[in-house]
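Input.
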Amino acid sequence: MQLPDQLEFSCPVKLLYGRRALEHLPYEFGARNVRRPLLLSDEDAVRENRMRALTDALRASEIELGAVEPPAQGIDLDLVHELAAIYRDRDHDALLVMGGGALMDLAKLVNIVVSTGQDDPAGFGASNGIAQRLKPMALIAPAAASGGEASGHVKADRIELQSIHLMPDLAVIDERTVGAPDQKAVLNAGLTALAFGVEAMLGAKRNPMVDIYAANAVQMAMAALQSAAEMPVALTTRMLTASATVMAGCILAGKAPGKLHRLGTCLAATGRLSFSEALGVLLPAAVTLEAHKHGRVPARLLSALMGLERSSGTPVGQRSLLAATALMSLLNDLYRLTEGRLPRNLRDAGFEPDDLAAVCAAFDETAGDGDQDAAMVMLQQALDGKPNQSGC
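Output.
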């Protein structure tokens, strides 16, 4: 898949993509009245000296960039308060985050504190408790990402929040700052973005903007996963992965996690496979189950998975089989590529039929609207990676 040299999407997160996307930051900051951003970066960004491209891009501008040492692994309120104090004492007016995963969660919590004055972000409640717009925040997106960086979700320690106001205003994907993650990190990020995109496109409720993000997430993630065999991982693959994860975050926005997301979390909690691996093995079953529920698989999903040329003309009754087959084929390829490290199904990860009830019981705590039965069917079909087309 060939990406254009320059790409912009707006609402809810403006995305700048390109070979020199960072050079657009001064203009974007100026439009948001940002003059003194505080940079949070992770250890990988420091080790790979990615900050140099950023400082070069800002050199001729009036932007005064401040920075702190990369925070240690783990998030606690003391660290949030320490960074919030630095933000206030140095008169910063925005956050700039170079990294993903826990670092972005930390930045979101700091932004809550400096924007609202409330020292304990947990006080806002889990769902949409943040009603006000927060101070500007920009993400310099990496290829090694969790998929939630651009979302309105944050989860750290005892704090779990959802609000569209937690989304960054701006995401920048630049060749010089996507980093050089290993194959495992790229595969994990690609699978997560793919799953978020597929689940969104399977949903019964249509949202044109979400469809745009979801189709891009699926298409870019598929292209990245199919080309991840190159070592070291090629620049195009890294750019595709970073783009897919930003799109995945936009899909989530401030909504509650979907069934696939929640079931993947329960599987990952067993310690037998990662969250991204859990999403991967569930995908073929999710496609066939939702196809049975709604009577079809959207043609746009098939196109995103396989390309328009291969998907066009496929009869409606064959779409779910073709989509599930494409996903199973991808999992088989990744299994061979990683010499069995990345599972094709739940048995590969060490699960047996008797283990499924415990996973379903954990899922039941978050389930509703008949999701319990659907979760067990999905787990049973994912056990051997053989989803049946009847959905039962």
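Strands lie at 6-9, 14-18, 37-41, 66-67, 94-98, 137-140, 153-156, 159-162, 170-174.
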